[in-house]
Design a protein that fits this description.
DNA-binding; Arc Repressor Mutant, subunit A; Tetracycline Repressor, domain 2; about 210 residues; homodimer
Chain lengths: ~210, ~210
Amino acid sequence: MIKTIRSKSEQKRQKVLEAAIELFVVQGFHNASMDQIALRAGVSKQTVYSHFSSKQELFKNAIQTRRSDYELSDASRLDDSAPPRESLLIMAQALLGLLLSDDGIRANRVCCAEAESHPEVAEVFFKEGPEHITNLLTHYLQRQVDSGRLSIANPRHGAIQFLYMVKGEAQMRALLNQKPWDSSEVSAYLNSCVEMFLKAYGVVAETC
Amino acid sequence: MIKTIRSKSEQKRQKVLEAAIELFVVQGFHNASMDQIALRAGVSKQTVYSHFSSKQELFKNAIQTRRSDYELSDASRLDDSAPPRESLLIMAQALLGLLLSDDGIRANRVCCAEAESHPEVAEVFFKEGPEHITNLLTHYLQRQVDSGRLSIANPRHGAIQFLYMVKGEAQMRALLNQKPWDSSEVSAYLNSCVEMFLKAYGVVAETC
DNA sequence: GTCTATATACAGATAGAC
DNA sequence: GTCTATCTGTATATAGAC
């Protein structure tokens, strides 16, 4: 009995969170109103306030709930046994796909825009997003160095170089709403990044 | 006589623009109010509206007026005669300094945040900012290729790789209000970028 | 052209019935 | 807990005196 009541309330809380996520991510913090959120969630505004004490609190919870969406769907994409050329290209493509999705771009925008007024939100985004990916790639590169396939003095620097090179202009264009590259240009650029990375960090036997 | 009147009006217009720039850049579009802008400009709100028909119009004019601030102060930093190692490092340091300044970060945030509602603003930012720098570096790299100092199949790709590698994590941290690297780490990372770039694109005689 | 004062709208947040 | 109805502040934008 009590359980049913709690679960019904919990359902509404979830509805509110979902509505808040969509509206905050699409419209930003200031443009999304509590009225809209309540309307979309199918509850009254007071119900929203009974679950979240303020708009700030709701924003924090909503964005942080999204954290799992930032992760690459399959961490095992960085296959240790495949040639680095292959593993790196596959992860670059997956990463770019994630970053250029509508939700990815909008989440990035809103987290940057609110970084000063909501530092906790920006921190979660940074740690679960860029920093997490950097760690994955750093460890992968370290293993490749250990097994003699790559030669990198500072694998963390190498990982950062590769990741931001890959994001590069494509993400900047998307963030600024500019005409995107066509897919053939993206593909050529990504290949060029992998080749360049291996030329610099590959062991001689493999690259020359 | 008429000239005096016009110039006085023009002065106020300038005051309004300056106030708008500061407030929009620091607080974003929605948080900066027309009251604040009028107050800071030392004019009445109606005077603001007599010069700019709406808040949107004022925003557009204000941000676009800032365009000159995005440029590197001295385009000749890319010295053709110096060794690429040196020219590239100097430009990387200058670029990062510009991008990590408070105003640089805030302008970036607000232009991304408003990219959908104010596409003209985002376009100006993109063309005068990232695209302009990319062009400068592309032409520099092309000249170095022509003179046989570098070997790059696609200089534009090379320029993009270098620039976004350099911006990398430092800018992301700043945008998301995270703890910045200390200057020794920045310095080490930039050196690592230049070395890596030359390892991949330098002519053999210079790098091996 | 510039000011003071105001119209109008809508935001976040709350009160009180059920 | 949930709803309808409302309070209160503040935003953009305008009207009218000088």
